[in-house]
Amino acid sequence: MKRYFISLLIISLCFPTFAQEEKKEAEGFEFTTVKEIQITPVQNQNSSGTCWSFSGLGMIEAELLRMNKGEHILAPMYIARVNYEGKAKKYVRMHGETTFAAGGSFADVIDGIKEYGIVPMEVYQGLNYGDTIHRHGELDDVLKGYVNPLTRSRKLSTAWFEGFKGILDAYLGEVPETFVYQGKEYTPHSFAQSLGIVPDDYVSITSFTHHPFYSSFAIEVPDNWRWALSYNLPLDEMMAVVDNALENGYTVAWASDVSEKGFNRKGIAVMPDVKANEGPGSDQAHWLGISQKEMEARIANLTGPVPELSITQEMRQEAFDNFETTDDHGMLLYGIAKDQNGSKYYMVKNSWGTDSPYKGTWYASVPFVSYKTTNIVVHKDALPKDIKKKLNIK
Length: 394
Prior knowledge:
Number of helices: 11
Radius of gyration: 22 Å
Strand content: 15-25%
Distance between the termini: 29 Å
Order of helices and strands: EEHHHHHEEHEEEHEEHHEEEHEH
C-alpha cells in the first residue's frame, strides 16, 4: 500500500454505553455511533509511505487492549526498517524484478513481529535525520539508488548488505539490542513475547473471482513483495467477517483503494450513484425528494449523504482487473455508525494526524468498503464459525 501524498491501564473492550449515543457532525453529515472498539491514539505518518505499518500496528495495539494488556504505542518505524531489509534482499536476489518501495502489506507487520520482534515507539522513533516528523522522500531515493546497481552486478560483494543497513542506521537509527521499558529490560523478541501476541493467529481475507473461493492466493499487487497468502471469500462473506469482527470487539486492518472521488479529506468515504435520482423505479426511493441539482452538488462536494452504488462481485473484479482498484492505503476499522438517514458506515482510524473534521477518524460507507477493499486482516477468532469451518481454520 502506498500513499501519494506508558503506563498499564486496564480498560473495557468498548467505550461505555453513553458513547453509543454520541453524535458527530461536519459538512452536513450527522453520525451516531452504534459500536466503538477501544483503540490507541491516532498517529501521523506524514510524508512516508508507511500507512501499512501504522495501521497494522494500530490493530495489534487494539488487540492488546482487547486482551487487557494495557495501552502500548508500538514503533511503526521499527517495523518499516526491518522490512526495508527484507525487501532489499529479495529485490537484489530477484535482479530487480520485484518491488522495492516504501509501501508494504499487513503481512509485513505480522511477519515482522514474528521474525524481528517489536519495540515501543518511545524506544525507536525513526527520526534520525534532523526532523521532528516523518519525511522519507530522501531516504527512499537513497535506498533505491543503492540497491539498483546491485541488481546488475555479475557478482555481489559480502559488504553490500552491511552498507544498506548503514543507510538505515543513519536515517532511522540503529536497532536496539536491549532496552528498558516500564522498568524492565527487554530485547525486541522478548518484548514481543511479553505482549502475548501470536502472529499465526491473524489471517488475511480477500474477495476476487480470478481465484477459487475458499482457497488462498497471493494478491497480485506490487506491495505484496512477500507474496503473502490471503483466503478468498465471496463478497458477502468477506463483509460478514468485517461485521462479525467489529460486533464482537475485534478491530479490522483494512487495505483499500482511496483514489476515488468519494474518499476525501473531510473524513468521508462513499461510492456515489449518480443515476439514483433519475425517477420512478429507483431502489433509492428516499432520494427522490432531492432535486437533481442538489444531488449533483452533494456528490461533487460531499456536503451530505448521497445515494450510493449497490456493489456486486463482478464490479469488484472489474475494478481490480482494470487497475481502478489498487493497493493505495492501509487503515483500521474500529466501529460502526449510522448517518442521519440510517445508512451504515464503518469508523476508520487513519494515520494522517488529527487535523480533520473527525480528528483522524474517517466514516466509510458499506458500499465503499465492499467495492474498494483489497484485503483485511483479523484475528482468526473474529471469523464467523461457518466461515472458519469452510476455510478449515482451527
